[in-house]
Structures are given as C-alpha cells and as structure tokens.
Amino acid sequence: MRAMDVMTSGVITVGEDATVPEAAKLLADHGISAVPVVDKQDRVIGMVSEGDLLHRAETGTERRRSWWLDMVSSTNKLAGEYIKSHSGKVKDVMTRDVLSVTEETPVADVAVLLETNRIKRVPVLRDGKLVGIVSRANLVRALAMTISASASGAGADDRSIRERLLAELKAQNWAEVSPANVTVKDGVVHLWSSYLSEQEKRALVVAAENIPGVRRVEDHMRPVPAYLLG
Asked: Which architecture, in CATH terms, is 148-228?
C-alpha cells in the first residue's frame, strides 16, 4: 500500500502572506491541528501548526525567561522568538523545514517518518506540488482495512472490492470521495466521507452494495458542516 492509497486529497492550505488570526481561524473552523503553507505555484514552503501559535503576545502566552537565561541565549534566538510571538504574518511563524513524501512512498515508510520525527502528518507531493496529505488517522484507517485479514486471500478480495468501488465512484459526476475515505475489511465496506444531501449519502451506500463480494456496508459518514456551505 502506498501514500496515494490512503492520503486525503483536497488539502486545506494557507498562503504565506495570510495573517496569523486567519490561520488560527482556519485550524479552529476545520478542527485540524496544522495546515500546509503554499506559494502561488501550490508548492509547500512551510507548515503552520497549533504549536507554532502556542506562544503569542495577543494571548499573553509568549515565552518568558529568567534574566540569566536571556543572558546566555543568543540574540538571534531571542529575536527569532520575538518574531514568532509578535509577527502577524504566517510566513514569520510557520515551520519551514517540512518533511514530505511522494504518492509512491510505501505507507510503512510514512509511518516510520511520522514516528521518528514525532509529527502527526506529512504532505504528499507530485513534482514538488501538493496533491494530498497523510496523517496518523489515515494510517489507522489503512490498518483497519488490512488487520486480521485471513490467509485465504481475503486481503486480495478486499483490495479488488475497493478498487472497483473507487472506479465506480470516479465515473459518477455526483461523487467526490477521497480514496482515504473508503476502506474494506473482510468484505465489509466502510465509508467515512462527508455528504451534501441524504440522496448523495444513500447513493454512496448503494454504489458500495452493488460491488460483487461486498457483504455489508458500514456508514460512518457525516453531513458537510453548514458553515462550509456558505
């Protein structure tokens, strides 16, 4: 299994010239803990996370050091901390050294990357441009799809079911489902996507039920939040 099989497409991003409050609102509104920062060519140039916004002058949480620590700290470090806690631009507070993977990166390698670097997500790039993101949650779903697969070949059957369902949904104009939101385990299809209407939700279930070999469909879907509908 590769990154492209589990990644979330349609990633929420922010520009480097966005304001810190705008980035904070983006994180809060979407219930996410970090967002990639991209340039005008959709190339990832940084990542802004809750950790980057933790110590801010507006909330009185900027770092406070004792006088003797200030004396032994370099002026560059102190100046950098001041910028991070006082600047209103994303480009000044974001983390610039961003790790990334490609669509072909094995999920095992992605898991090691997340664990060894103690990060929660990693951007997926194609020719340097952002096409998706793999989070720990995506990997947990991948595990749910493969764990306890019987030695009789159920894993292969599950992959076939998933591939057929994704192909069917891709052919439908009404269906916008990320591959990461479709998992199959022991013939049971799990749907995790958001939906705009009850008709769309039912159509997704029907599409899954009609795939040969499907034993059952588990509906984990949620409606698109009203504030995102304008």
From this structure: 2-Layer Sandwich (3.30)
Identify the residue whose tokens are 């998706």. 132
Virtual torsion, Cα 134, 207, 213, 104, nearest 10 deg = -20
User: Which helix (H) or strand (E) segment is 76 a member of?
Assistant: helix 75-86
How large is the C-alpha radius of gyration of the chain? 21
What's the mean pLDDT in 125-131?
A: 88
- 37 vs 55: CA distance, rounded Å: 19
Backbone angles phi, psi at 14, to 5 degrees: -140, 150
H helix runs in 104-150, sequence order: 107-117, 136-146
Q: Cα 157 vs. chain centroid, distance in angstroms?
A: 27
**Can you name the residues that pair with 89 across neighbouring β-strands?**
19
User: Which pTM was predicted?
Assistant: 0.56
Q: Which two tokens stand for residue 66?
A: 């004792």
Task: Label residue 135 by pLDDT band (50, 70, 90).
Answer: confident
> Tens digit of pLDDT for each residue in 8-34?
887 888 988 889 889 888 888 888 888
User: For the domain 3-135, what is the CATH code?
Assistant: 3.10.580.10
Nearest partner of 131 among 107, 155, 102, 162, judged by Cα: 102
Where are the chain's structural domains? 3-135, 148-228
Cα-based distances in Å from 157 to 146, 152, 181, 189: 11, 10, 18, 12
Q: Answer yes or no: are the C-beta atoms of 186 and 214 closer than 8 Å.
A: no
